[in-house]
Every structure is written in structure tokens, then in C-alpha cells.
Specification:
This is UDP-N-acetylglucosamine transferase subunit ALG14. By secondary structure, this protein is of the alpha/beta class. It is 42% helix and 12% strand.
Length: 310
């Protein structure tokens, strides 16, 4: 008799590209969420690094300049942090755009376009303030910021007073939700953030966007996507906020703007290798005149000395 041999083939595992993409995003989100929680846990332990030392020299760094040959529009994404953070951000936006129009001498166009905003899903106040801001901009005799392209609502990464353990899951959910906005819908060149933890998922995905996007050279100047600028609150006089500390620890911001020279001591305290913190006054002069030139170290030292005397 003949022996029949039956060969059993293992079923072929078929994974669609969409499933693979979701899986990769999930892994990246999980890694980012764990990283944020680890930083949160170590901030209090290393809080002594943020103590100020009186009598030490305060250093400031000149602002980066935009190449005159790079006239392409800048895709801008702005995160409104709610409450006073939203007020500070809108005020900064109007002042910063005024600087650019005065420098260029052209008030008919704006280089910050398309302009998009991100707010927390529970923050209805910021949406109303943004509508009023757009109305004031439209009625202004001088065109400043363009009418925004879109407003996106995302879940909060961490509510006020929420425990670190439960914040792991809310942060993970917020990171997953934000991925589509930053990586696909907007793909911004510039991200302006301030305030509470709402901006953390945006900053994390902006950093991923920067890593994944190619660098473009324009007249010898590098142009990359996902440039992150964090503006600290005016109320933070001597130390960074919790969000500022997290972003500083993660080292993903291109620039951190602070209002008070005392906060610049953090560079020395934390012995940072990359010095990316500077006074916001270096962008806008106190007399209201705009300046696009790089601030000299002498003028910065004089200002810091006069502020210390006051």
C-alpha cells in the first residue's frame, strides 16, 4: 500500500500597510509616553539643579535669522494653552508679525501661511478668543497674521492635579490622537507652543516629523520641518514651568524663549551642551521698534545689567 504524506502549510500572515502604520505609531507613542513619565518622575528629584545663584554672569544668545533668499511661506502651527497662556500667545503672535512686516516693508502678504491652531478639546474659551483675534486682525489697518487655515481640538495629555500613573494613559491617548494632525494634516515648518501639557504631544510628533523629513538647502541655509519654539509664561520669573522643564529635559526644542534673565541661569545649572534658551526681548526692542539684526552681546549685557539694577 502506498503511504500518503500530507504536508501542512502554515497560514500566511497578511498585514496591510495601514495596520503596520498603526502598529508603528502605537509603538512610537508608547515609547514617547513612557519617556515623558520618566522625565516627570525625575524632575522633582533633580529640582536642586534649578536653584538660582546670585551674582553670576547671565548669558544670552542671539536669535536665529531667516535667510533673505528663503521667501517661501512658512507652514505654522500654534498651540493655544488655554487661559492666560492663550492671551500671551495671541499677544506674541501679533507683535511678532508686526516685526516681520516692518522689516520687509510689505504689509500685503504674510509669510506665516497656512496658519493652523491647536486647542484642548475642553477649552471653549480659547476658541472664542481666537475668533475675536481674527476679527481684530481683519479690521486692522495693517494686515498682520493671515486668517487661520484650521483649528484642531485634541485631548489633554494631563489635567491639573492628575496623578502621574493615570497620566500615562491620557498622555498615550493624546499622543496617538495628535499624530495624524502633525504628521499628515499640517506638516508644519514652525511650531509655536506655550503653557500646559497640551503642547507636549504636538512637540513630540514635531520632533518625529523633523527626523523623518529631509533637510532642504537654500542658498547655503538649512531648512527643515518641525522647528519647535517654546515660549515660557511671563509669570515664570526664576524657574521654568513643569512643561518647560519636560521639554528642556527632552532636548527637542530648537529654542526656548523666557521673559526674565534669572531663568537663563538654568543653562549653567543644568550644564546643557546645547544652549537653546534666550530672552524674548532679543526679538522685539522695548521701544516698540522692530529689529531683525542679531542682537550683540554688548547690548544684551547692558540690558541685563539695567534690569538687575531695577
Amino acid at each position: 500500500s502506498k503511504t500518503t504524506i500530507e504536508i501542512l502549510h502554515a497560514p500566511t500572515l497578511r498585514i496591510s500597510s495601514a495596520t503596520m502604520l498603526i502598529f508603528i505609531i502605537l509603538l512610537i507613542s508608547l515609547a514617547l509616553a513612557v519617556r515623558v513619565v520618566i522625565v516627570l518622575a525625575t524632575i522633582n528629584k533633580g529640582d536642586s539643579e534649578f536653584r538660582q545663584r546670585e551674582g553670576e554672569t547671565i548669558r544670552s544668545h542671539p536669535p536665529p535669522t531667516r535667510s533673505s533668499h528663503d521667501n517661501r511661506p512658512v507652514k505654522t502651527l500654534v498651540v493655544l494653552g488655554s487661559g492666560g497662556h492663550t492671551t500671551e500667545m495671541l499677544h506674541l503672535l501679533s507683535s511678532f508679525e508686526e516685526v516681520q512686516t516692518l522689516n520687509s516693508g510689505d504689509t500685503s502678504t504674510s509669510m506665516y501661511t497656512p496658519l493652523s491652531y491647536i486647542v484642548a478639546s475642553t477649552d471653549t474659551t480659547s476658541i472664542n478668543r481666537l475668533a475675536a483675534f481674527d476679527q481684530n486682525t481683519a479690521n486692522s489697518s495693517k494686515l498682520r497674521l493671515p486668517k487661520h487655515d484650521a483649528t484642531y481640538a485634541i485631548p489633554r495629555a494631563r489635567e491639573v492635579g492628575q496623578s502621574y500613573f493615570t497620566s500615562i494613559f491620557t498622555t498615550l491617548y493624546s499622543i496617538l490622537y495628535t499624530a495624524n494632525i502633525v504628521l499628515i494634516k499640517t506638516r508644519p515648518d514652525l511650531i509655536l507652543i506655550n503653557g500646559p501639557g497640551t503642547c507636549l504631544p504636538v512637540a513630540l510628533w514635531a520632533f518625529v516629523l523633523r527626523v523623518l523629513s529631509p533637510t532642504i538647502n537654500i542658498s547655503g541655509k538649512r531648512r527643515t520641518k518641525g522647528k519647535i519654539v517654546f515660549i515660557e509664561s511671563f509669570c515664570r520669573v526664576k524657574t521654568l514651568s513643569l512643561t518647560g522643564k519636560i521639554l528642556w529635559k527632552l532636548r527637542i526644542c530648537d529654542l526656548i524663549l523666557v521673559h526674565w534673565p534669572e531663568v537663563l541661569q538654568l543653562e549653567r545649572e543644568m550644564k546643557a551642551e546645547q544652549k537653546k534658551m534666550m530672552l524674548i526681548d532679543s526679538f522685539i526692542q522695548h521701544d516698540g521698534n522692530a529689529s531683525s539684526d542679531v542682537a550683540s552681546s554688548e547690548s544684551t549685557s547692558e540690558y541685563n545689567a539695567s534690569k538687575k539694577d531695577r
